[in-house]
Amino acid sequence: MRRRQMHMSREAQDALLQALQQLRAELKTPMEFPAHVLEAAEAAKAAVQLPAKDATHLPLFTIDPPTSMDLDQAMHLERRAGGGYRVHYAIADVAAFVKPGSPLDAEAHDRIETLYFPDLKVPLHPPSISEGPASLLPNQVVPALLWQHDLDADGNVTDSTVSRAKVRSLAKLDYQGVQQDIEAGTAAEPVALLREIGKLREALEAARGGVSVNLPDQEVTLKDGSFRLSYVAALPVEGWNEQISLMTGMAAARIMLDSGAGILRTQKEQGDQQVVQRVHDIAKHLGIDWKPGVTYAALANSLDPADPKHMAFLSEATTMLLRAEYTTFRDHQVPEHTAHAAIAAPYTYCTAPLRRLIDRYTGELCVAACAGQAPPPWVLEALHCLPCDMARGKGKVADRRAVDLVEAAVLKNRVGEVFGGLVINTDAEDNRPKEGTVHLADPAVMGRITSGAELDLGACVQAKLTRADPLFTGKNKILFNTV
Predict the structure, then answer these.
(1) What is the pLDDT of residues 383-428, one digit of tens each?
(2) Which of 16, 53, 205, 351 has a 20 to 30 Å separation from 277 between CA atoms?
């Protein structure tokens, strides 16, 4: 799964450094690994044993941002004799290095996940492991959890299994390059098949009622001495790549449900009829034709996030309708609700163990189940704590707050200017909202806006910038008022 990051030049880093340092201090971000953890990492590297199963013959490849070194996933795609496809999907075997109860394990439970800032990242595991022998970097033999998915000609999974194996990736590819090669017809078949399989999986997702909302990302650059933000739409290859990860997460959830122990990422649709009605009203207000009998998923899949009014609806509706949580179970006491509403199937995180704590545990449960073995005791003992552990993760907060800082820095010398914008969010609890979020096209900023009159969702407004200060200690570093 690609974790998209903001790109920032050295000049921009210098301008924002103080505010970013304050943010990291506020979040109590651990910037350095303790000496005993680094020593444990070196010992783990020396002691690691490669699995007996040898899958180094598979010509695996990775797709990640060009500068990424902590590579969680590698894949190989091929056609099956008689029709259909076979997907090999290697996941970094973090448990081969991080033993339960070790200093590395304790540190990972403190950190929970890798944090990304515009100027740096704060890794979950020491880089000597996560960017070295545990990473699926090209031309090195490493331990992995190797998934094998067999698909029919329509992309349906007919069988999935996972086991430990030693693997070797041969190529480190990036999204832009893969997209260009596929479009030009120059991609090798294992890479070209990503489009074929990805589109089949996207069609199956839509058919079962799943929804993938890819709102544009914000990207920051420095040009001619000035900061500039722009919206960047996801490439199609990113969606196809995501489908391989989603397919694996769905397979892992099914394996855990069948084996009687696991942890799922569950999501329920909002059942409050007032909320549901408000979402329908929002669609009507924005001129979106939501026909009777059409599900939210079907509607969302038909919309174009590049259309500002569609983006306004998706931003508001997704926040209001869907709530995700972690659900654990063991001893075959399967919970009543196991599905993830946006995926329209049971699902779990399992494909990014270098960057997210929970994936190491789900991977271990699946390997044990596929081998016909009981779950490792250390995994079972941790199950009930994992939802609380993951709730302590600060990734989403760090992402959001860092974007706020960049936006404030971009606009700090433009206070008093008036910008054209679109209201993409309003305070839902207020029947006549006077506060919300405004989306500017240029610069690519989304900020808080207040109005003396009712703020109309989807309305085009003239927004006067009244505050832009990355060092402001209050709630809103950027603030607009309607003119």
Answers:
(1) 999 999 999 999 989 888 888 888 888 787 789 999 998 887 787 5
(2) 205
